Amino acid sequence: MADTDSEGPHGASMTLDAAALDRARFGFHSAYPRRSSKRVFHYTQVAAIALFVVALVFALRSAPETTLTATHVVSWMLFAAMILWRLIAAASLTPLLSRLAEPHIWPTYTILCPLYREANVTPDLIAALERLDYPKQSLDIKLLVEGDDIDTIAAAIAMVVEKPHVEVIVVPAATPRTKPKALNAGLERARGDYVVVYDAEDRPHPQQLRAALAAFEDGGASLACVQAPLEIDNANASWISRQFAAEYAIQFREILPLLARLGLPLPLGGSSNHFRTEALRASGGWDPNNVTEDADLGYRLARDGWRADVISPPTWEEAPATFGAWLGQRARWIKGHMQTWLVLMRNPIRTATEMGIGAFASMHLVLGGGVLAAFVHGPIACVVFIAAVSPYNILGPADFTLALLGYCVAMFTALTASALTGSLSHARAALTMPLYWPLQSIAAVRAAFELLLRPHFWSKTAHGVSRRSVR
After folding, report:
1. Percent of the chain as helix, strand, coil, to the nearest 5
2. DSSP designation for 35
3. Which tens digit of pLDDT belongs to each residue from 313-341?
4. Helix H or strand E encompassing 448
5. Which domains does the chain have, with CATH numbers?
6. Closest Cα to residue 200, out of 10, 463, 16, 436?
7. Is the pTM here over 0.85, yes or no?
8. SS3 for 79?
9. What contacts 291, CB < 8 A, 6 or more positions away?
10. What ranges in 105-235 are assigned the alpha helix state H?
């Protein structure tokens, strides 16, 4: 499988050989070409897009008033549905509860930690993993480091001394330069019955693994994944990080729990998702060509008949504190969500049959609606502002009411998220949230260009750059 550089009672390090690297890079596409993001647009999608554009131009030329009215009504109904969905999620003030497993025999738990240019935070990550309330002899920790990242390799190897449960896996530098490629390399060597992913800046709650294990015990054989909530612990670093923290609170404390209660697919977060190893391998692992491999995997598990759920013990993460860092990360997320949607829509009938009509509809509302909202936030904000200061009736009563309701519901979700997490920063963010939304449109335009010009480019977010409340 691979060439081992050194191993023994003091920890281990190894470098993937060429065959293992090729499996990590190309294995998913070879086994599941119809589900791979290696090709951005399927030829049928290009034809469908062209046909839609031609039909729209024809309709506008032949019946412009009817076409615009129909477009207006459909758009109004779509955004009303999205607002109603968020309102229902925000009104569900049910705290996440989890019992803690106390098995007689502790199953092996593999922890995959992809690292790239993370030498400065590697010691903090290892310290956080050492605080996990789980027997060390039952842990299988894999630090996955890119081969050209000499500093992080050195920092990681230094940290595994006297830690036989930790292994450093050096992944030779090769395209695609993505996190899921490294995760596939780690999955191949995983010894655990369960697998969890943690990012370099993560500080998981010490009891998170035990809560996830209890959820798997209670959830039955069809439960493939358990998502822990991600919370931001540098929310006070800047206005951007405060808004980011409110977004995370809404997503992980309101949206995902509602989806889980309804038995609908979860667009997984980038870390702290726990898997049954057998289910993860049965679904092919991660798509190395998808830059939001988490969301893609959540929907793929649903297509294969698996369920996902949520637990309570969180993982604390560091949010981007500057606009530049936020823009790169957000553009990657939007691009990856577009990749995922395009894959799911290559054969919509098959996708709907595999995951069910309800799950298929929720995918469009949550995933597709989120992408659409990112593109239109900026234009809508401009129209609403102009309508508010103009003496003319630019917006009709129904349109203005919907826009106002959307802003009010968004602020309400932030306030209820504040109640669930106990963080006043979310309440402060709610007051200026309408000013944050138009930034999404800037990221969406960048994401669209990247989807066409460099679809598999991974914009790396720097960590360890701001003070955090959790160490």
Report:
1. 55, 15, 30
2. G
3. 999 999 999 999 999 999 999 999 999 99
4. helix 433-453
5. 2-29+100-323 (3.90.550.10), 71-94+334-453 (no CATH)
6. 463
7. yes
8. helix
9. 178, 332, 333, 335, 336, 339, 455, 456, 457, 458
10. 122-130, 150-159, 179-189, 208-219
